[in-house]
Recover the amino acids of this structure.
């Protein structure tokens, strides 16, 4: 067993944009598993926008990261040592572990086996993981898209957006996406089969871009970004549209949040707008996994992963992801597959 364990800790809480000074790489020790525990050698770690919220002190659905503690993340790793009958050295597992080379899963809490033959390991942090399930749940519980309807997805090339749009396509919707570069917009239209996509950063106005691509209005908005795009979507929405409030990443790093101007349409158009948190629906994980695995296997759903190399690069990669520099689901490779 190696004696070094590189770990990334939160040293201060960001105000506004996250900065490299909010993190520190420190050298820790590899923990010894006690009875019932599993030691995991981390291979891939997920970086997700919700982590920005956990860096604040404010009360939320997920507890705040503690100053001086190793940051937490969803991880795919290999069991390095086990004192738990359910896990053996060499098993590939998923767990809520840490930004570190080795993590101890006390009592194997949060661990589950993953099938390394079924899909590339990073997919368990993306299409077959929390982001994929977020898209699936949001559409199933709130969006309820029907064939022939128009679905609009923002942050369409991201971890959640890619899946939301493709589920809409499978359900027979006209699917429109927005993304932050020409290459991302081309990817969702040409590779993922969205009917139309646009680069919101170069669009003359969000409203005009949406009106042009949603000639029959929009029936479901899968909102990943909030802000001015939400205002434009409210204006283009049809009567009885459903707004799936998945996230509002455009607001996460603002010291003062922007207002939404067009809420008046909620009443006039009888729009239903609802937020949700994927972890409230963990009982549906097996159903989600079965359906998504089928789509991936048949090729109906494709998925792009953006792999950054090296635990030491995780803070810079996280900051870049919040700024839209990721292209696909952002993961960090911490160690080799085997
Ligand atoms: N409700 C839930 O349970 C749940 C679960 C997971 C995720 N989420 C939410 O889902 C959303 C997407 O998360 P993800 O994991 O799929 O991340 P992601 O889309 O893979 O990465 C974040 C993307 O957000 C976009 N972005 C950043 N700043 C923006 C801005 N000011 N305006 C518009 N877009 C901006 C960037 O793409 P562009 O280049 O396109 O700008 C960036 O690539 C987030 O809001 C997240 O909080 C919610």
């Amino acid at each position: 067993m190696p004696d070094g364990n590189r770990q990334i800790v939160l040293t201060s809480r960001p105000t506004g944009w996250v900065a490299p000074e909010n993190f520190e790489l420190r050298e820790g020790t590899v923990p010894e598993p006690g009875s019932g525990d599993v030691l995991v050698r981390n291979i891939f770690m997920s970086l997700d926008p919700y982590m920005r919220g956990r860096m604040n002190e404010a009360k939320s659905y997920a507890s705040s990261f503690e100053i001086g503690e190793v940051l937490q993340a969803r991880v795919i790793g290999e069991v390095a040592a086990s004192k738990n009958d359910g896990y053996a050295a060499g098993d590939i597992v998923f767990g809520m572990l840490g930004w570190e080379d080795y993590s101890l899963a006390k009592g194997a809490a949060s661990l589950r086996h993953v099938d390394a033959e079924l899909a590339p390991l990073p997919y368990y942090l993306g299409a077959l993981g929390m982001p994929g399930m977020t898209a699936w749940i949001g559409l199933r519980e709130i969006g309820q898209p029907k064939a022939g309807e128009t679905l609009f997805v923002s942050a369409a090339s991201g971890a959640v957006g890619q899946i939301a749009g493709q589920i809409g396509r499978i359900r027979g919707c006209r699917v429109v996406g927005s993304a932050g570069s020409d290459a991302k917009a081309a990817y969702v239209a040409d590779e993922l089969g969205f009917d139309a996509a646009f680069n919101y950063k170069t669009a003359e106005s969000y409203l005009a871009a949406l009106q042009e691509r949603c000639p029959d209005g929009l029936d479901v908005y899968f909102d990943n970004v909030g802000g001015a795009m939400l205002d434009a979507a409210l204006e283009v929405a049809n009567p009885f549209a459903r707004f799936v409030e998945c996230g509002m990443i455009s607001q996460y790093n603002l010291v003062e949040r922007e207002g939404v101007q067009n809420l008046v349409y909620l009443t006039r158009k009888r729009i239903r707008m609802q937020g949700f948190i994927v972890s409230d629906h963990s009982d549906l994980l097996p159903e989600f996994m079965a359906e998504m695995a089928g789509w991936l296997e048949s090729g109906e759903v494709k998925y792009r992963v953006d792999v950054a190399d090296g635990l030491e690069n995780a803070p810079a990669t996280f900051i870049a992801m919040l700024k839209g520099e990721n292209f696909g689901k952002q993961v960090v490779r911490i160690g080799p597959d085997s």
Residues 48-50, 131, 134, 155, 157-161, 179-181, 184, 224-225, 246-250, 276-278, 321, 324, 326, 329-330 surround NAP (CB under 6 Å).
